[in-house]
DNA sequence: CGCTCTAAGATTGTAGACAATCAGACGAGC
DNA sequence: GCTCGTCTGATTGTCTACAATCTTAGAGCG
C-alpha cells in the first residue's frame, strides 16, 4: 500500500510554504491505516472516547478525522449510535470492482499515452517489490505489494482525480475482502500474474494492458465471490486480529 | 443539480431503520450547496466562527461538516489558517474533465447494458427539464439542468461508486468554472446539444453515446479554456454574487 | 516614504463539561 | 419462560472556554 503519508513527488525548485500535517491529518491517516491493516475490524464500532484516548488526542479532532473517512466511505456515521468501520458485502463486490476497473483501465490508457519514463519505472519498482513479497509467502505482504502495483499504475496516469479515487478504492478493496471472508487470500503466483501489467505499460501497449488489468480484476472477483471456483493456487492467512489498542500519535 | 438531499430510490419492501439526518449531514449539504451555487465564493476563506453563527450551529459540528468537504476536495484545510473554498484553475481543467469523461462514458456503457426503463426514463425527464430551462435563457438554470442530465446518466448505471464520484465532480466542475471565469457560460442550444445523449441511451447505442458524451465534454473544455474559440452561441451571466450570509439551518 | 517591529484583535485548535440518547441488565407481571 | 418497563451506565453530540497562532494596524526609525 502506498503509505498514506506519501510525500509529494519531486522537489519544488522554489521554496514552498511549510505546512505540517494537522492533528486531524495524522488521526485520519492512523485510522485509515488501521482499517486497511485490519487493526480496526470491518463493521466494528469506533468508540471515540476510548479510541481518542488510545491515540492520545481529544475527541474534537478525532471526530473531525472520522468525518473525513465518512466522506471517503471507509467509516459509517449513524446519528445517535456513533461511528463504525464500513462493511462491503458480497452484493457490492461487482459494483466495487466495476468501478475499480473503470479507474484502472482508464488510468492505464492515460499512462500509456502520457507517462514519463520515471513514472513507468515506479510501476516496475512496485512490481519488483511484489516479487520480493512473493518470496515471503505472507499473504498480507503479497496483497499489499499487489495493490501497490495497481496504485503505482494509476499514479502513472498523473491524473489527481483518478489517483484520489484509487487511494480510497484500495482500502475499500481491503474492507471488502475482510468482510466476505474469514481469510485473506492472494494468488500464490501474484508476481507472475502481474508481470503483463508492467510489460505492457513499458511496451506502451494500451489494449494489451487494458486486457491484462481486466483479467487480473476478474480473477480477483472470482476469488472473492466463489473461492472454490478460482482455479489457482492461493496463499491464505487468517484475517488479521484487531489490535487490542491503537498507539498514541506522535504529535 | 441533484439536490444533495436526494432520497434513496425505491421503497424497501421491509421496514427500514429510521435515520434522521444529523446536524453534520445538514451543515455539509448546506455548505456544498453554497459552494455549488456561488454563495460561497471559490478561494474564499470559510470563517468558522462567523459561519457557524450564521447557520445557527456551534463550531464543533461545523468543523466536522467542513472536514467531510475537505475529503471531497471541495474545501481546503490549511493548519493554522483555517478553511477555504477550493479553486480549480486552468491547469486542472483538462485532468478534471478527463476524470469526468472516464466516469461518464463508463457509466454510460454500463447504463446501456444494464439500466431499466425507469432509469432511462429519468434521464429523459432530466433532459425535459433542460428543455424547459433553456426557455428561461438563464445561464445558471440551464447549467444546473445540463449537469443534472449528466448526473442522471451516471445514476442510470446503478453503480454507487461512479455516482458518488459524479456527485462531487459536478460541484468541482462548478468550482472550476467559477475559478477560471468572471462569467458563467453555457451553450445557448444546451437542450439540443444534449439530445443525442438521451436518444442514444434510449437506443442502447453504447458507442454512439460514448462519442456524444466525449463531444459534449470536449466542447465544455474548449469553452472553459479558450472561450473565444468555442464557436457556438452562448448564454453568459455574471458569476453569482456571494451571499452576504448563510441562513440558519432548520434542525 | 518605506520598512520593521510590536501589540492588539481575530481566528483556529483543542479540551472539558453537560445534556441527550442509547444499550444493557434486572425485576415484575402474565 | 417470555415480555415489558425501569434504571443505570456508557456514549454521543454539542457547547463553551482557553491557549496558541495568525493577521493587521500603528508607531518608530532610518
UniProtKB/TrEMBL annotation, chains A, B:
Pfam families: FCD, GntR. Keywords: DNA-binding, Transcription, Transcription regulation. Residues 21-88 form the HTH gntR-type domain. Residues 231-251 are annotated as: Disordered. GO terms for molecular function: DNA binding. This is DNA-binding GntR family transcriptional regulator.
Amino acid at each position: 500500500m502506498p503509505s498514506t503519508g506519501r510525500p509529494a513527488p519531486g522537489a519544488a525548485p522554489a521554496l514552498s510554504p511549510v505546512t505540517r500535517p494537522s492533528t486531524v491529518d495524522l488521526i485520519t491517516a492512523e485510522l485509515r491505516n488501521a482499517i486497511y491493516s485490519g487493526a480496526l475490524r470491518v463493521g466494528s464500532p469506533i468508540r471515540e472516547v476510548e479510541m481518542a484516548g488510545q491515540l492520545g488526542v481529544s475527541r474534537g479532532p478525532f471526530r473531525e478525522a472520522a468525518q473525513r473517512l465518512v466522506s471517503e466511505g471507509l467509516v459509517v456515521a449513524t446519528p445517535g449510535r456513533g461511528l463504525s468501520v464500513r462493511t462491503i458485502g458480497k452484493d457490492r463486490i461487482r459494483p466495487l470492482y466495476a468501478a475499480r476497473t473503470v479507474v484502472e483501465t482508464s488510468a492505464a490508457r492515460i499512462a500509456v499515452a502520457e507517462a514519463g519514463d520515471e513514472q513507468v519505472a515506479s510501476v516496475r519498482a512496485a512490481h519488483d517489490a511484489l516479487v520480493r513479497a512473493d518470496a515471503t509467502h505472507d499473504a498480507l505482504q503479497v496483497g499489499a505489494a499487489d495493490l501497490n502495483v495497481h496504485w503505482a499504475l494509476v499514479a502513472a496516469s498523473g491524473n489527481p482525480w483518478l489517483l484520489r479515487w484509487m487511494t480510497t478504492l484500495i482500502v475499500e478493496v481491503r474492507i471488502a475482502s475482510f468482510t466476505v471472508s474469514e481469510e485473506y487470500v492472494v494468488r500464490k503466483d501474484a508476481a507472475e500474474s502481474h508481470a503483463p501489467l508492467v510489460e505492457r505499460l513499458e511496451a506502451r501497449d494500451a489494449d494489451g494492458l487494458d486486457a491484462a488489468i481486466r483479467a487480473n480484476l476478474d480473477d480477483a472477483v472470482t476469488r472473492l465471490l466463489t473461492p472454490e471456483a478460482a482455479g489457482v493456487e492461493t496463499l491464505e492467512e487468517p484475517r488479521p486480529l484487531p489490535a487490542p489498542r491503537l498507539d498514541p500519535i506522535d504529535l
